[in-house]
Structures are given as C-alpha cells and as structure tokens.
C-alpha cells in the first residue's frame, strides 16, 4: 500500500498497520485520506474517554496557556489535586507520578526493595506471574513473565521469581524469607485477557497478610474504568498495598502513577526517587479531569452495560463458528480466543473500517473507548460475523 509520508527514519521496532492516522473523535479515527475507522483498540486501552474528548481538550487548552511545566523542586497544585482525587477514590493514601506504565512499575519495584530492606530484614525478591506484562524498561522487563519480551537483553535485573498465574499453591510455595512483594495484574492484558480463578486474588491477599509482604496490582491496563469499576481490584473485592496506573490515566497524554497505602506510601524519602516531568501541572490537570469524568459522566455504567451487551453477542458468535474458543473479559476488556491464526481477521476487519487488535498470538482483543454505544457494537459484531463467514 502506498503511504503519503516517509517512515524510513524511524527505528524498526514496531510493525504498524498501513493506516496513517490524522484525526480522531469519540470512537472514530480518520486517516490522511479521509477514510473513517471505528476504533475498538483505543490506543492500547488508552483513550478510555474516546478520542479528543471535549473536556480533556478544554483542560489542555486552558492549562497550556496557564503553565505547561514546572519541576518537582516546587509545589505543583494540580499534582496535589490529582493525588487527592485518586486517593479519595481508591484504597491509596499516597501517590507518585511518572510518565509511563514502565516507570510506574519501576517505582513500585523500588518501593518493594525499600520495604524489604527496612521492614523485612533485607528481603528483596518480588514474586510475579508467568505470562505477565509489566513494561520494557529493565526492572519492568525483568518482572515480566514472557520470554519473548526479554530474550536477547540479558543480563536482567535479579530478584524476580515467576509462578504460574492463577495457581495459589505455587504462590505459597514461592514465598520465602527473601520475599518482599507479590506483583500481579488483576486480569492479564497482554497475555490475552486472562482472568484468574474467582478466589485467587483474595487468597494472594491472605498470603501477603500472613507473611507480612506487600501486594502490588499492576492496573496499568485494567484501571481507569476499563473493567467497569474505576479500578479492577474493586470488582474482585481485594485491595492491594500498591497499585500502578498509566494508559488511560491522563486520557491519552503520557502519565504513569504508583499509588500506595500507608504500609508502603511513606517509604520514599527525599532523594530516593524522582522524575523530571512526572506530575507536571498540565498533565496532572488533564488526568484529574479524566478521572472525574470517568466517575461522574456515566462512563463506568456505560462500560458495564455495553460490555455485557457486547460479550453476549460475542458468545452468540462463538456458538456459530467452531474455530472460536473462549470469549472472556470484564467491562470493555474483552478477548476472543481463536483456534486458528488470527492476523487475517484483524486485516479483514480493517478493510471494513474497524480496528481491533491481536494479543497472545490468537486472541482478538477488544478494548474500545468506554463511551461506545450499542450501535457501535452492532457494527463490529456484524462485521465480525461477515469476516468469519468469509474465511
Ligand atoms: C501497557 C502496560 C504496561 C507498560 O506501560 P508503558 O506505558 O508502555 O510503559 C505495564 N503493565 C501493563 C499491565 C500494561 O498493560
């Protein structure tokens, strides 16, 4: 396919679809040729409020005129306001702000080390799950439980122990006097939207309580309303001690956060950790508006309602085609397992003007903006049926 722009000066680390995106609004994107796409990826679960949401655009405009950047050498009122809103609406007491998911994870890992050294007699290990994804920086990559992310980049950071996801026995067996923390995604996103057994997270919480170690939930993908509650842990009825956020946090602008309760939130002392850009005034204002909009504008209700509608349609499709395996998900984080290759399906959906993505090789992942309507779902479901009939 002919492209309008020259992409040859970019490093070769991505494999982008041949769509040159120019503009977005709500659940739709337009390419440079004016062709419209219904976006059921929302970035990678980032644009939870849809593209260029008017409240975010207004905040960006106003705040940019007011002040874009000031360092953490000074007090930043919008950062304090964001932290207040996040803490008032979660288990957390304290927040640290960074610029990406991986950086939020790095902060959580450093907190674990401090916790182990100061409160657990020098313990430094973090137990994480096989199949997990926590990011691409060295700490986050070492925490990640997927060989394909890590291969070729050793030596990695030591101190991570990986156990099968969803199996409480192996968590119990992995805990030793060296363990400082357990790090888990409440639902594994990059591993194909894998939901743990019903009592798993509760049982992990009990292990952490019994052993006096901290529980970290990576909610970078599941947070910000994605699963129908502001944070996924609420839906499971299990609060962590530390939680990482990013992706949808600032409505598409880059921001990561590490939240903690009082067990871990007071461990960093001045000089222990920092970020030049983290929690700047512009982005903090935008993130606060994103959080408040998610809570106050019916976004969570819509996510639950349309998510259930979508899921029941997908389950119907599953009954119609024998190569469709499990349909699983929560809210609008949904995976459809295909017992065949799936890359042609993504391409054929794209030809029909619908963007979906593929994860864990054969799982079609749907992470649309949380503001989609039933009519949007109908379009996607009918196209999916057509594509499945065609192949
Ligand atoms: C996307 C993601 C990350 C990494 O976030 P980046 O902003 O790309 O660094 C970490 N953990 C989970 C669960 C994610 O989905």
- Average the pLDDT over all residues and give the rounded result: 97
CATH topology of the largest domain: Aspartate Aminotransferase, domain 2
CATH superfamily of the largest domain: Type I PLP-dependent aspartate aminotransferase-like (Major domain)
Structural class computed from helices and strand pairing: alpha/beta
Major sheet summary line = 7 strands, mixed
Q: Reading side by side through the largest sheet, how are the strands ordered?
A: 4-10-9-8-7-5-6
Cofactors, ions and other ligands in the entry: pyridoxal-5'-phosphate
Note the gap between the termini: 22 Å
**Overall helicity:** 25-40%
Note the beta-strand portion.
Answer: 15-25%
Question: In total, how many domains does the architecture comprise?
Answer: 2
Q: How many beta-strand runs? A: 15
**Assembly classification:** single chain
Q: Which CATH architecture of the largest domain would you pick? A: 3-Layer(aba) Sandwich
Spatial shape: globular
Low-confidence stretches: none
Overall radius of gyration: 21 Å
- CATH class category of the largest domain: Alpha Beta
């Amino acid at each position: 396919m002919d492209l309008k722009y020259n992409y040859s000066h970019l490093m070769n680390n991505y494999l982008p679809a041949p769509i040159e995106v120019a503009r977005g609004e709500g659940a739709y994107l337009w390419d440079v040729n004016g062709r419209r796409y219904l976006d059921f990826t929302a970035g990678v679960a980032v644009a939870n409020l849809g593209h260029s949401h008017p409240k975010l655009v207004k905040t960006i405009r106003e705040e940019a005129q007011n002040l874009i950047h000031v360092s953490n050498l000074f007090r930043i009122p919008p950062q304090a306001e964001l932290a207040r809103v996040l803490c008032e609406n979660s288990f957390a007491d304290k927040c640290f702000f960074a610029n990406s998911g991986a950086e939020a994870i790095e902060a959580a890992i450093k907190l674990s080390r401090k916790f182990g050294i100061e409160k657990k007699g020098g313990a430094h290990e973090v137990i994480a799950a096989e199949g997990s994804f926590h990011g691409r920086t060295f700490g986050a990559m070492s925490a990640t439980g997927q060989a394909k992310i890590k291969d070729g980049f050793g030596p990695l950071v030591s101190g991570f122990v990986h156990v099968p996801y969803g199996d409480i026995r192996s968590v119990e067996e992995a805990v030793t006097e060296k363990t400082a923390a357990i790090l888990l995604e409440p639902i594994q996103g990059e591993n194909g939207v894998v939901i743990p057994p019903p009592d798993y997270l509760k049982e992990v919480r009990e292990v952490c309580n019994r052993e006096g170690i901290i529980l970290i939930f990576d909610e970078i993908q599941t947070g910000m309303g994605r699963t129908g509650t502001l944070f996924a842990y609420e839906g499971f009825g299990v609060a962590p001690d530390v939680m990482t956020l990013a992706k949808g946090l600032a409505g598409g602008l880059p921001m990561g956060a590490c939240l903690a309760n009082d067990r871990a939130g007071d461990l960093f002392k001045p000089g222990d950790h920092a970020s030049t850009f983290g929690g700047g005034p512009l982005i903090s204002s935008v993130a606060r508006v994103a959080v408040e909009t998610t809570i106050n504008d019916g976004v969570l209700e819509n996510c639950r309602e349309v998510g259930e509608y979508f899921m029941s349609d997908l389950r119907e499709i599953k009954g119609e085609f024998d190569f469709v395996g499990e349909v699983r998900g929560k809210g609008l984080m949904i995976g459809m397992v295909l017992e065949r290759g799936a890359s042609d399906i993504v391409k054929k959906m794209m030809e029909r003007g619908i963007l979906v993505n593929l994860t864990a090789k054969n799982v079609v992942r749907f992470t649309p903006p949380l503001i989609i309507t039933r009519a949007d779902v109908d379009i996607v479901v009918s196209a999916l049926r057509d594509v499945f009939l065609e192949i």
